[in-house]
């Protein structure tokens, strides 16, 4: 294509692959916490999930005759996020099914990277939740791998703040340790891969609504801190609502997107049938994302809303 | 309105990290180059008034357009050919080649012939501007006199010393070594409208700020420091940075009582008024990773690009750009000569980029100084969706190149946006006429 030889003749070094590599690196602290708390099976599930995602993407692109772009590492990111959002007791074949659904249905059928409407990892998780409900609701207490059933802290159960920060609680593999997730966020933020808008508005909305309406003793008695540290709120804020493809591109849009996702999470948690609301909330917010993006489009240079304002500038 | 009080800059844009390193390749030393022959590219529809075999002195008018001179002989010697050749911008145009004769070249420069006797100083300045062939030396090459033709009401003259393109340092070299000329040019420009103030705008940390301040001390000219941000040197962005207001769509600066001139143009005008000679030479930055000894070269207009490249040590020809790496064009014929609007020649190896699918990161929309959405325009242009392109205001693109620069998927956003802009504009023109 002749268009290749046009300006600019210098390009920023960062490629899609570099962005995805940074995301993978930022997922290492939660992964380490998962292995520490839930044992080597956590690593096995993550590896299987990543492999299943990459292979199904390869197969799909090959069969549909498109450019094989698995080296952009995006499928690996989806695989790792999907695995970390599942409990450690999930059978391997269930993870594989979720991964294939995530890549083929949620990502590639919509046009591949950047074109998908729904977050692939969350779609995969919902698929498992609906298809194999008995496998995903059995959470284990860390370091007791004998499939002793337990509820997540959200479904009741008391944990100390210390346990919530370092992850000695039951829950999905990657979501239990707040400190490790924040470490991951620090990596993403400092490298400029994610910005503050969506995570902050998401967490603030969730905390505020919980504080206001979810208390036992009436209005404004809820535990905001507990709401943030339990379940996958923090994990979702850092790795899910920041997904490029399924959230608006502009800052204002991302704030609104975060508010919607946060409010929906609160609704599902408080009044829904599932104890955990993040993945459902994010999928609904994903669905609204294109519209939010359009409404929040930036204001182009020199376009004034009305003639008066324009005249004022000209004078 | 988008007021900015904190620091002087514009919306969006980006601080190019490469900028610092690439600009340090050349310092403020200016080296003179005298070529054996010059080949002067003429503007479209100009009437050549010399023919092969003519002996010309420096300053002799060689082409007219609409009755006004548009080109002068930049060296003294013999006109060896008048023919149609490819210019540095890759366009075929009338070209006058002059072979230098040392004896003739040393003779005094022919003076600008002023037409009607000027009544006032203002009229005299305007007449000099009209007859001097001076055009904007920042790259666009717009005739300077046209900006001042109906400029009585203009309040601010912005002298653009913001050189935002990486590698290019010709204006910095000029402002450091000849600050007094830039200040004088600014004063002369400001004397044309009824009541105007000249402001020299320079990016923070530029080495020319001290000399400029010293020269401007006793004059009415102000020196303003702006943020170092690409594309600060773009006319629209400069106006937004200084005034805090954005030029309404479709308006010219003069409609808002502002005129923007490049610093080199101001210095050239000062020299024109001083000596009554047309501008015959300019400083060109020859730089880039592919140049053994990058430098700022003072060369006559029409000096072949090949002479400049050789002068700076290039023997093996790779990719050379006319202008900087962000907005420049690859040179097709390096025997073509530089023009008044040539800021630099940049030799770099073009990046090996493979387009991938857009990942919807929003980087392009964030940095775009026009605040249009390149990722959407790119998609609409590839689909040929003209209605959407118009809605997206693709005509506001200034072609700065930031969207392609920043894109992690390495998509050719700038190329597609510029193409969309050109097509929408020509369609509108077709309908309007």
Structure description:
The complex is a heterodimer of chains A (315) and B (433). Chain A is mostly helical. Chain A contains 15 helices and no strands. In chain B, 30% of the residues lie in helices and 20% in strands. In chain B, a hairpin with a 6-residue loop joins strand 15 and strand 16. Chain B is globular, with a radius of gyration of 22 Å. The chains are: A mainly alpha (315), B alpha/beta (433). Chains A and B meet through helix 1 and helix 15 of A and strand 16, helix 14 and helix 15 of B.
Descriptive terms for the model:
heterodimer, A: 315 residues, mainly alpha, 15 helices, 59% helix, B: 433 residues, alpha/beta, six-stranded mixed β-sheet, 30% helix, 20% strand, globular, disordered N terminus
Main interface pair?
A: A-B, 41 and 61 residues
Structural class of chain A: mainly alpha
How large, in whole angstroms, is the Cα Rg of chain A? 21 Å
Question: Total number of β-strand segments of chain A?
Answer: 0
Contiguous runs where pLDDT drops below 50 for at least 5 residues of chain B: 1-5
């Amino acid at each position: 294509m002749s268009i290749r030889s046009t300006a600019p003749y210098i390009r920023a070094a960062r490629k899609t692959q570099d962005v995805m590599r940074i995301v993978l690196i930022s997922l290492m602290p939660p992964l380490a916490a998962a292995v520490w708390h839930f044992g080597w099976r956590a690593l096995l599930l993550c590896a299987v999930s990543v492999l299943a995602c990459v292979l199904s993407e390869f197969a799909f692109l090959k069969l549909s005759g498109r450019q094989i772009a698995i080296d952009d590492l995006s499928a690996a990111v989806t695989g790792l996020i999907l695995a970390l959002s599942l409990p450690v007791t999930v059978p391997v074949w269930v993870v594989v099914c979720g991964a294939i659904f995530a890549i083929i249905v949620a990502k590639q059928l919509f046009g591949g990277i950047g074109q998908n409407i729904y977050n692939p990892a969350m779609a995969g998780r919902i698929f498992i939740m609906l298809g194999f409900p008995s496998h995903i609701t059995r959470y284990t207490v860390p370091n007791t791998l004998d499939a002793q059933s337990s509820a997540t802290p959200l479904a009741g159960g008391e944990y100390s703040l210390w346990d919530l920060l370092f992850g000695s609680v039951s829950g999905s593999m990657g979501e239990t340790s707040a400190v490790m997730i924040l470490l991951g966020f620090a990596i993403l933020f400092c490298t400029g891969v994610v910005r503050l808008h969506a995570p902050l508005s998401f967490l603030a909305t969730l905390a505020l609504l919980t504080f206001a309406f979810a208390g036992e003793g009436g209005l404004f008695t809820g535990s905001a801190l507990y709401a943030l540290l339990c379940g996958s709120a923090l994990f979702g804020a850092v790795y899910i609502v920041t997904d490029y493809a399924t959230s608006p591109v502009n800052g204002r849009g991302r704030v609104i997107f975060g508010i919607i996702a946060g409010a929906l999470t609160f609704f599902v948690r408080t009044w829904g049938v599932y104890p955990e609301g993040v993945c459902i909330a994010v999928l609904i917010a994903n669905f609204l994302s294109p519209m939010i993006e359009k409404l929040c489009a930036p204001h182009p240079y020199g376009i004034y809303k009305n003639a008066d304002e324009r005249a004022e500038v000209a004078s | 309105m988008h007021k900015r009080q904190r620091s002087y800059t514009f919306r969006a844009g980006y601080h190019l990290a490469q900028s610092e390193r690439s600009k340090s390749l050349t310092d403020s030393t200016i080296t003179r180059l005298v070529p054996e022959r010059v080949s002067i590219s003429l503007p479209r529809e100009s009437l050549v008034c010399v023919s092969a075999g003519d002996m010309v002195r420096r300053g002799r008018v060689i082409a007219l357009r609409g009755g006004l001179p548009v080109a002068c002989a930049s060296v003294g010697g013999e006109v060896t050919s008048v023919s149609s050749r490819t210019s540095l911008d890759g366009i075929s145009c009338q070209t006058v080649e002059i072979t230098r004769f040392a004896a003739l070249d040393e003779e005094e420069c022919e003076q600008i012939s002023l037409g009607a006797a000027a009544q006032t100083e203002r009229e005299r300045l305007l007449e000099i501007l009209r007859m001097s062939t001076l055009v904007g030396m920042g790259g666009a090459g717009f005739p300077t006199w046209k900006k001042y033709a109906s400029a009585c009401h203009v309040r601010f003259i912005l002298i653009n010393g913001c050189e935002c393109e990486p590698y290019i340092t010709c204006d910095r070299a000029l402002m450091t070594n000849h600050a007094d000329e830039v200040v004088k040019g600014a004063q002369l420009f400001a004397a044309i409208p009824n009541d105007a103030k000249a402001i020299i705008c320079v990016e923070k940390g530029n080495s020319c700020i001290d000399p400029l301040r010293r020269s401007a001390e006793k004059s009415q000219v102000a020196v303003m420091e702006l943020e170092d941000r690409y594309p600060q040197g773009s006319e629209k962005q400069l106006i937004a940075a200084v005034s805090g207001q954005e030029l309404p769509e479709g308006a010219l600066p003069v409609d808002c009582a502002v005129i923007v001139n490049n610093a080199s143009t101001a210095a050239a005008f000062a020299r024109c008024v001083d000596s009554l000679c047309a501008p015959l030479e300019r400083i060109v930055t020859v730089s880039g990773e592919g140049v053994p000894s990058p430098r700022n070269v003072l060369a006559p207009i029409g000096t072949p690009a090949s002479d400049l490249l050789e002068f700076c040590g290039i023997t093996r020809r790779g990719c050379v750009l006319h202008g900087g790496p962000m907005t420049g064009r690859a040179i097709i014929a390096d025997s073509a000569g530089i023009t008044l609007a040539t800021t630099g020649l940049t030799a770099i190896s073009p990046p090996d980029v493979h387009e991938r699918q857009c990942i919807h990161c929003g980087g392009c929309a964030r940095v775009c100084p026009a605040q249009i959405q390149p990722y959407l325009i790119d998609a609409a242009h590839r689909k040929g969706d003209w209605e959407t392109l118009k809605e997206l205001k693709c005509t506001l693109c200034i072609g700065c190149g930031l969207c392609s620069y920043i894109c992690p998927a390495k998509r050719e956003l700038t190329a597609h946006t510029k193409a969309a802009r050109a097509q929408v504009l020509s369609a509108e023109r077709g309908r309007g006429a």
